[in-house]
Every structure is written in C-alpha cells, then in structure tokens.
Design brief:
- The protein has 206 residues and is an alpha/beta fold.
- The chain is 41% helix and 16% strand.
- The chain has one domain: Glycerol-3-phosphate (1)-acyltransferase.
C-alpha cells in the first residue's frame, strides 16, 4: 500500500509543481537507478522534501524532524511515504542506525546536511551526522541544489509565491575515495560532511 501512496503522491506533485511553478530538473541521469545512494541537498523551505522527492526517478527514504510525527494521522502518512523521524538536538543514533540500515539494503536516502532550514537562503555548515551515515552506509553520494523554494514558501511565509522551482543533481562521488580509513572516525565524518556542502555550493554557482 505504501508504494501506491508514494506513486500517487509523486504523480500529483509532479503535475502540481509543473503547472504552477515551472518545475525543472537537471542532471537526473546522475542518480544511480539501483543500489545505495544518498541524495544530499540544501534546505531553505518546507517545500524542499516533496520537491526533491518528486525530482527523483526512484523512491527514497526521508529523514524528517521528529515533531512532524506528533500528529497521529500526519505521522502515519509520513511513514507511508518512507519518512522516518530524527531528533535535531544532538546526535540521534537511532535515526542514524535506521538510515544506515536502509542504505545497506540498497535503498536511496534523502538528507539535508544542514539539519535545518536556512532562514536567509544561504548555505549552512553540514552536521557531522551525514558524514557518519555516508561512511557507515557505504553509499554513493549525489549532491543536489534546490532553487526557488525559498521564494515560493520562505520561512514564516503566510502566502505562496508563484516562482520557478528548479532542482539540479550533481555528479555522484564515493566517500571512501575522499579520505583514508586510517584517520580518526570523527575526522572522516567531518571531511565527508564538508565535501558534501562544497559540492552543493558548486551547484548553486553553476
């Protein structure tokens, strides 16, 4: 049933975004069709998760902040579209374990390395947790840049702005090729996290 709900939402959102926001996707071919992959993107609007999911050519799991699951009906819906909760304060080891587990089973995972929305649209530093997930999940990473959602639905907005939304996927890369496994784990995670944000920044400037 969850696959049907996911597919239905994907079609509805794709039509909606194209009709009202001129939705455009670049670099979709950079997403591996099978196997473990992390799609890491900037975050400046509540629209980013559904926009990114709609842009993908395959289903993906989401890490979503835990308070979104506090409403029973909404929480069940989020789980039906492959979202799972994560605590934003500190390191949520349970959520990290779930994310790594999904990746090791060959799934796609959407993450927002900044951990929270950027209120002014500028990129924020990545949290080290994303580096940990990438390293332990043995997944290829695809950076993504979402453009326009911060103008359509910026933080604290009361009305939607009808602006163009565009998603660009960058070239995939493997974490193990960035760092030596001999380094301390904390340093490994930090380097991977910083590299992810650097790749997203390149997409922003392209």
């Amino acid at each position: 049933m969850s696959h049907l709900i996911y597919a239905f939402c994907h079609i509805i959102l794709l039509v909606f975004f194209k009709l009202f926001f001129g939705f455009k996707v670049n670099g979709r071919k950079n997403i591996p069709p099978i196997g473990s992959v992390i799609i890491a993107a900037n975050h400046s609007s509540f629209l980013d998760p559904p926009v990114l999911g709609t842009a993908l050519p395959r289903q993906a799991y989401y890490m979503a902040r835990d308070d979104l699951f506090s409403f029973p009906i909404w929480g069940r819906f989020l789980r039906s579209v492959k979202a799972f909760p994560v605590h934003r304060k500190g390191v949520d080891r349970r959520a990290i374990k779930m994310a790594v587990g999904y990746l090791r089973k060959g799934n796609a995972l959407i993450v927002f390395p900044e951990g929270t929305r950027s209120l002014i649209g500028e990129l924020l530093p990545a949290l080290p947790g994303i580096g940990m997930i990438a390293w332990q999940g043995r997944a290829v990473i695809v950076p993504a840049y979402i453009k326009g959602t911060n103008k359509v639905l910026p933080p604290r907005a009361k009305f939607i702005g009808f602006k163009k939304i565009e998603v660009t996927f960058g070239k995939p890369f493997f974490p193990e090729k960035l760092v030596s496994s001999d380094l301390p784990r904390r340093e490994i995670y930090d380097k991977i996290s910083r590299h992810i944000m650097a790749e997203i920044a390149k997409l922003k400037l392209s």
